[in-house]
Amino acid sequence: xxxxxLISFGILxxxxxxxxxxxxxxxxxxxxxxxxxxxxxxDNGKIVAATENGVFYYTIxxxxxxxxxxxxxxxxxxxxxxxxxPQTKIGVIGYANGSMDIITPQEVKYVVDIPIAxxxxxxxxxxxxxxxxxxxVVSVGYGVSVFNLKKLEFGDSAFFVNGxxxxxxxxxxxxxxxxYSVTNTGLKSHEMNTxxxxxxxxxxxxxxxxxxxxAESSSLIFSSATSAFIYNNGTGTPLPATFGGIxxxxxxxxxxxxxxxxxxxxxxxxxxxxxxxxxEDCNTGITVNGKIYGGTMVSxxxxxxxxxxxxxxxxxxxxxKINLYDNNQMLVSSGSRENRFNQPPxxxxxxxxYYFNGTDWTRPSFFSTSPIITNVLDAVFNPADNxxxxxxxxxxxxxxxxxxxxxxxxxxxxxxxSYNLGSPGDFSHRPVGFASDPQNNLFVSFGFNYGNPSIxxxxxxxxDFTIKKFGISSVATQTxxxxxxxxxxxxxxxxNFIVYDYKNAANLSDDVDYILTDAxxxxxxxxxxxxxxxxxxxxxxxGTDSGLRILPNAAAEIKTPDPKVEPIIIEQGGxxxxxxxxxxxxxxxxxxxxxxxLSVDGGGVYYLSSDGQQTIKHFTKENSxxxxxxxxxxxxxxxxxxxxxxTFNGIVAYQGDVGDVTSNFGNVLVxxxxxxxxxxxxxxxxxxLAEKTNIRIADAAGNVIHSAVARGGYYEWDLNxxxxxxxxxxxxxxxxxxxxGSDKATAKIAVVN
Length: 753
Known about the structure:
Layout: E1 3-5, E2 28-30, E3 39-42, E4 46-50, E5 54-59, E6 64-69, E7 79-85, E8 90-95, E9 100-103, E10 108-111, E11 128-132, E12 135-140, E13 143-148, E14 153-159, E15 161-162, E16 165-166, E17 171-175, E18 178-182, E19 186-191, E20 203-207, E21 212-215, E22 220-223, E23 228-232, E24 235-238, E25 248-251, E26 256-259, E27 263-266, E28 272-276, E29 282-288, E30 291-296, E31 301-303, E32 308-309, E33 321-325, E34 329-333, E35 353-356, E36 361-362, H1 366-369, E37 376-382, E38 385-393, E39 400-407, E40 412-419, E41 430-436, E42 442-449, E43 452-459, E44 464-469, E45 481-483, E46 486-491, E47 496-501, E48 512-516, E49 529-534, E50 540-544, E51 547-551, H2 554-557, E52 569-572, E53 575-578, E54 585-590, E55 596-600, E56 604-608, E57 615-619, E58 633-636, E59 642-647, E60 650-655, E61 669-671, E62 675-676, E63 684-687, E64 692-698, E65 704-711, E66 714-717, E67 730-738, E68 744-752
Parallel strand pairs: 1-6, 62-68
Antiparallel strand pairs: 2-60, 3-4, 4-5, 5-6, 7-8, 8-9, 9-10, 11-12, 12-13, 13-14, 15-16, 17-18, 18-19, 19-20, 21-22, 22-23, 23-24, 25-26, 26-27, 27-28, 29-30, 30-31, 31-32, 33-34, 34-35, 35-36, 37-38, 38-39, 39-40, 41-42, 42-43, 43-44, 45-46, 46-47, 47-48, 49-50, 50-51, 52-53, 54-55, 55-56, ...
Keywords: Signal
Organism: Chryseobacterium pyrolae
InterPro entries: PorZ_N, Secre_tail, WD40/YVTN_repeat-like_dom_sf
């Protein structure tokens, strides 16, 4: 039985960093994919595997799997290189942006950047890392650098440059007292001495285009794309096999492993031992106790028998939108749009959608077997039949709404039907996103409908969609939002916003649509509306590509002759400033306490007070586990308070402080408690409160030293008294009542200064 732990390697005791702040905490979890294994190392019956967004550690004897990601210790995503030393238990991760993480048994340290040659403007991606003892050789686009794992600093670098043209080191390793590097022009070497940084003193041992290299104490191997060689004093002895496209070569103390379309093993003197097919593409392979393990592209670690090992996660890190359902179920869409929310990507992502049942992830086999090009922007359960799933396919040639049905026997989703909704071969109806109402009516928005946005209304009787076209020019739409018996629809390519009062979904003759424009208060420089969410008081929070607007009492105001949207004005240094002025507000979500989560393109995620006047938290990829600063979707589980952030590079979740809030108290919790100043210098959180809570905090003598009114289910106390001074060490009593005094709660806080 496979066991899963979230503690990285099972041995990390603390986290320390160089040139970086702590970005992870127990409040964060990841929903990354661990399918695409880039590199593996074996350590006494355990396999350490690096994937795109994290590392996992598989213990063969027990089946235990631990994982390490940006949510619990690492500092970045897009891993491009990895090596691990079983003797010292040190691993080195290289990222596509040129940074590195050094993993030791005690901590993770962050190395912000590699040395860069003067005048070099190419990619900083780390191509390869090879550890020998306390030295790690790092291959990049300009050549090689040596990193000292004891001193945690870079030593010499060799810039492979001739006449101002840089040559990349594809891979490099230490063998004897030399560093060997394979490049597109040859196998090159240099002793680790004072002239090492001077490229003109390097020796081209064997000319040719070479991709991979590895070494042990007495052996060196290298390869081109189609041949692998054992190095012997300036010559290469080819291994006795024909390869079509070598992905990796690995040298251990007892064999050579070459990964091609199969995984081949050879003795150290080049005798062929075995060849195994994993039934799918692999990036790398190793042997453990005579058994071959493949690092696959889509299934994690795989044995010859076909058994796979990996942490639970979606098929791919590509994610665009998420929908949450009861029992921790999730549907994740993997698509994308370009050119101001109009064009599908040039190379569509065929990943489709991923379904999480609360325990396991499923990707329908349809997306692997069907020749149809897919770009899924949204996937939802049929509100009238949760065994069916509808998804939107936003492409040029195969656009339409598709329906699938869950097959309990195969534990897969079977294709049922597609709804083109346009003339054969045209691209006039590109479906974007779904909404549903309490009567289980299903709606879908369409863009590029001959210049007019439209809504499709699903008719269960005819199993088809009726199209409602709006009389406004705009070739793109967003996902509609249902509120107060109307659909609220942002238009990302025009400075407009549609509200559709459909009244009776079965009858289009009585419907009414309302259109907001810049004349209603949108910024004059805005080119489109992007998102909408509703506060508890019924205000519409509308995100545009040039800021934020509020439509107060939206359901009633939209029906007035001249509804007005308004910016939120905050005070900055005594002057009024428009909140998120000129920022692209991609998504807005409201939690159970009426606090707002907003993602701003390039600016991360903001957590705002209910009125927007205070920024409570601001998460970025620099200070949190967010994979990027452009979050395409936010969803809040109002029962648990967990907030999901979706990006094109993966999904992370944050355990918020506001769960299901009512007029009475829930399970009141104070943390941290006790508050020891030497360990914690932030605010104390009190959660589980009523929707409106009157708070008084008293000292042991009964003196009230702090009072407040909390709204939204939680409160943060800065440990200051009414005069603004930090309270003394001691026990403090928190006395709380709800709004009408019908419910009460108490708590104690211990303060140690």
